[in-house]
Amino acid sequence: MSDPPPYLPSPGTELAKERNRAAEERTLMAWIRTSLSLIGFGFGIDRIVAAIDAALGDAVNSVRLTRVLGLSFVALGTFALLYAARDHHNQLQRIQRNHLIYRSRQSPAIIVANILAVLGVIAFVGILISPWLG
């Protein structure tokens, strides 16, 4: 008598895994769009301030906070992209291993939202105090 195969996949389970994989792909694509927007926004801030400085020279005393803010957006976008790619890889591994029991985990969106809130406060304070600095 021959041994039965160790695992016979059921069509329902395999289709559910495929739906989960597709949902993970959509989530990763959303993170790619978000990260690209953050990087583009930060780069735009930096380039606009550099162009104003070059055009007006010493006539405008721009606050260096704008450069730091622009670079912060670029760094946040890059961090979000790397974090989302790692999370995507881990989730695909979890689906493949059939570890589909719900586990609470830290959302990349909460991390990015908190960092954006801090950057917003820094920008607000920078704009608020800029008349007294220059």
Helix content: over 70%
Task: Name the helix and strand elements from N-terminus to C-terminus, one letter apiece.
Answer: HHH
Share in β-strands: under 5%
Low-confidence regions: none
**Which structural class is indicated by helix and strand composition?**
mainly alpha
> What is the number of beta strands?
0
Average predicted confidence as pLDDT? 81
| Overall morphology | elongated
Number of structurally distinct domains: 1
Q: Main beta sheet, described? A: none
Q: What is the first-to-last residue Cα distance?
A: 89 Å
**Cα Rg:** 23 Å
Q: Count of helices? A: 3
Task: Report what the structure shows.
This protein is mostly helical and 134 residues long. It has one domain (11-133). It has 3 helices and no strands. The protein has helices at residues 11-56, 65-96, 108-133. The longest helix has 46 residues, at 11-56.
